[in-house]
Amino acid sequence: MRDADAIIAVSEHTKDTIVERLGVAPDRIAVVYHGIDETFHPVPTEAVAHLRARFGFARPYILFVGTAEPRKNLLRLVDAFALMCHGGRNDLDLVIAGKSAWGSASLRARIAAQGLESQVRLPGYIAGTDLPALYGGASVFVLPSLAEGFGMPLLEAMACGIPVIASNTTALPEVYGDAAFGFDPTSTEALVAALERVLNDEVLRADLVARGFKRAARFGWEETARKTLGVLDAVA
User: Considering the entire predicted model, what is its pTM?
Assistant: First the structure.
């Protein structure tokens, strides 16, 4: 970092972290946001139905997409889902999609301890071509991470027309703006309240979907490329 002529950070939060932890001058760091692939958009109901049948997702589901590692806060997500189920909400599944990582063993143990093996689905890695239909079939997308440098899946969900719940920490509020329902990721009760609110309030759901489309449209790879080229030109 200290030897580089210029540094690209994917968010203001990441830039601030570099400055704070490594002592790099802020004027050497350019913030260039990621873009969203154009394949993420609402898909026909037939495509959603086909994916649900292929994976056996018969019931409505809450969706998380990402790697199973501790910073993703998945143990708290399982605990929040358990509180909902044990409180009488048995009409939903929780789908945690993504490749296994160093948090997978503890995640599976927590699911078993809560007695939720039949309601928490772990389909593993989902191919990119299937992701729009996976998002499209969800009742709500949740990103409960304790730390994120950007948070691409929440924008993908927004682009697919799904209401989003996300942590109100690190880079996430910077990315989702006013287009997601934010909550304190250190509080299981706050996560339960957020899920129940968004699942049950149709007016709020419609508002989040509308805001999500507008927010996601602001993140395109062409703009990312243009700004990246600007940094390279300045260095050259």
Answer: 0.95
